[in-house]
Fold:
Amino acid sequence: MRRRLLIGVALAGLLAGCGGGKEETFQGVPFEDPGPIHVHGLGLDPQTGTLYIATHTGLWQLPEGQAKATRITDRRQDTMGFTLVRPGLFLGSGHPDLREAEPDLPPLLGLIKSSDNGQTWQQISLLGKADFHVLRSSGSRIYGFDSTHNLLMRSDNGGTSWRKSKVPEPLLDLTIDPADPAHLVASGEVALYESKDAGGVWHLRGATPGYLAWPSAKRLYLFDPQGRVQLSDSPAKRFKQLGSVGGELHAALVASESEMYAAIEGETIKRSVDGGRTWQVRSRP
Structure:
């Protein structure tokens, strides 16, 4: 996308709903660099140990051993949905910074992808039609919660075409069984739900909502909005509490077999290497 700086253009009212159900207006970020504001998503590159941070003010990176996140290019798009599919390949959604975008670029980016660690982004589908606040992938299958229409959307061909299904309530988060891409656990603001047919039918899974991570078949994690960490060693079993992140959790969580990262208030990133029992500060703005 060719970018053009738009100065003195009234932007109020063009974008709403970025705050997870609370209406707000996005007017572009300041010309000075404000740092990462409102973390929406995290992605961990297992090859390099680099943590990628998708925010209201663009995409940032935190290489292993570095204390402060640095901006990737000068693009400041509001990257809402975000997932790292594999090293080097990202999927995203959200809204452009209208002072940098082409004049005819719509306020909803639909599905976009980057094949160069966030240096550049390409349009895949649903431009102007979908606002994914949650994006998850398993192989060529992609799930996205479109907050504009409160629908779960599924693509089995990398985002070229989509199927729609209803959800019990607007989703905070969704995670995929690493052993079965049709098996999902999702959270709304009220409760937790489970589907075994790719979102066609949902069943109540529990009364505690929160953010989710499913790094292996016997490790399904639930983080409530206050940052308390719970673990279920089987989707059919109840969660047991392990510890606490130590702050209110943003909609940003990522876990691998050996470590977990969570974004809490103040844009602080915390890391756990003992399965969520204890947490240390990895980075502050």
Summary: The radius of gyration is 18 Å. The chain has no helices and 24 strands. The CA atoms of residues 33 and 57 lie 9 Å apart.
